[in-house]
Amino acid sequence: MAEVVIVPSAAEGGSIPAAAIAALVTAKPDAVLGLATGSTPLTTWQALAGRGLDLSRVRGFALDEYVGLPAGHPESYRSVITREVVEPLGLTPALVRVPGDDGLPLEGAGDRYESDIHAAGGIDLQILGIGRTGHIGFNEPGSSLASLTRVKTLTEQTRIDNARFFDSVDDVPVHCITQGLGTILRARHLVLLAFGAGKAAAIAAALEGPVSASTPGSVVQLHPRVTVVVDEDAAADLAHADYYRYAWANRLDWER
Ligand SMILES: N[C@@H]1[C@@H](O)[C@H](O)[C@@H](COP(=O)(O)O)O[C@@H]1O
């Protein structure tokens, strides 16, 4: 059972993952974080920056990256992570990896990324957003529940959703390289975030629907340690919302 926290707003939602990351890094200064891009984690990065923690030894592995954008493209996830996470939080650029960034051929990049995560000791805490298609990372519907990092083809829906970051949908790459659902399941703690009404259906399907490759986010139901942070709008379709609120209000002292 995942721990589901329903918060009034995205702004307040950021404090929960920030506190989890702060506790982790205080105990383990060279912790390994799984980093997500997208608008959803922005309040987490802001809340974390506000804590003034030394994150210079933290190692990071991004979830995913587009394939085919020129190096330094402002919408490459490498650029986004540098701008939104590495620089404001004071991470060390050389300690933050993005899939396919090792300068070697794309073929085999997924296996090499898996080896690099393994060599780092595995991901301690993975931040996740969810797409409207139910994807996590760029694992679109149909992704194997056991998949590892590999090259994928984006759905038209995801390309349309992400066209806002480009001049037109034609400029959105067709391919990506993403950690797999199996990769995500290997992280020790998953923190799934979703804010806004546009995420309500995807969140309900992921948390309360059947575990299925058709709903990639549903893979979180197979993980022993998941924290889900949603605002009221994203929680709107959850059948057990009252129970989640009750469980959170009654959490034990040592869980706080
Ligand atoms: N590859 C990313 C995902 O990792 C992200 O979770 C999703 C949601 O984005 P947002 O948080 O902006 O809604 O979009 C992208 O497609």
UniProtKB/TrEMBL annotation:
| Enzyme Commission number | 3.5.99.6
A GO molecular-function descriptor? identical protein binding
Give, as one word, the top-level EC class.
hydrolase
Could you state one GO cellular component term attached to this entry? cytoplasm
Single Gene Ontology BP annotation: N-acetylneuraminate catabolic process
- For this protein, the parts annotated as crossing the membrane are none
Is Transport a UniProt keyword of this protein?
no
UniProt keywords, alphabetically: Carbohydrate metabolism, Hydrolase
What domain of life?
A: Bacteria
Show where the Glucosamine/galactosamine-6-phosphate isomerase domain sits: 18-222
Check the record and name the PANTHER family matching this protein: GLUCOSAMINE-6-PHOSPHATE ISOMERASE
Question: What protein name is recorded for this chain?
Answer: Glucosamine-6-phosphate deaminase
